[in-house]
Fold:
Amino acid sequence: MTAIKKISLDFADIAVHEHYIISTIHEGVTFGKAHLDAMFEVFNTYYKDRPFISIANRKFDYTIDPNMLSARNHPDLLAIAIVYYTDAAKEIVQFEKKFYNGIYEMFDSLEKAQEWSLELLEKHLKKAGL
Structure:
């Protein structure tokens, strides 16, 4: 599953795929509104008016205000998948999940998250009659 486009922002590396996006936030970032706005710009550029899944590849430790998860959602975002690599990261993801009102799943490998994303999108499109 090769990325269509790779983007480096000052706070993250992003791999754009046909049906999902993989973001790897850099170590020590405090993810705030400006970062979310930058992510939404990428979403709008590559996924405007079509459903997609956002995969957060949490290879590094960073901080996100969990209230941002409930405050704003991109209209074309079907789900969020979080890939964790440590028990501590898993606990943080479980805590953050409580703040998100949509589909928010956790995975212990990037491959599992990618497979789940494609299956979820396929079900969504079938349900929509597309």
Notes: The two ends are 23 Å apart (CA to CA). The mean pLDDT is 92.
